[in-house]
Amino acid sequence: MRWILSIPLFLYLLIAANFLMMAGPVEESMMNIIVTEFMLPSTRHIIITISDLLIIASLLFLYIETFKATRTNTASIIDHVLSLVVFLVFFVEFLIVPRLGNTTFLIMMVGALMDVVMGFTVTISTARRDLTTAHPL
What we know:
The protein has helices at residues 9-22, 50-68, 74-96, 103-134, and strands at 34-39, 45-49. By secondary structure, it is mostly helical. The longest helix has 32 residues, at 103-134. It is globular, with a radius of gyration of 18 Å.
């Protein structure tokens, strides 16, 4: 059951984005479907689309993945490796699949890259600190 914590959240986002962006005819994008709309007190009308929700989800997932990176067990190593694989899939699909070559997918791909970079950075910093406190020079 602990292995579920090793699955990067960006993998779920990648699967959802592939499903939403590849479904339906090319002319009709599911990404522009309006999920909700509301009025601000300033009378500004806000429209939230599926594309907006994917970008918001990527920001929230990046926040959660940053906390997951502070773990120092075997599961965190698996998480980092899987995060790198997920980013590489994002990157290859962005370059090769025409329907995925859009700004929403680009922003999610950059989020996946930041997950990889922050994961390794936090893990290395944490390991260095643990090593320093365990064996002072």
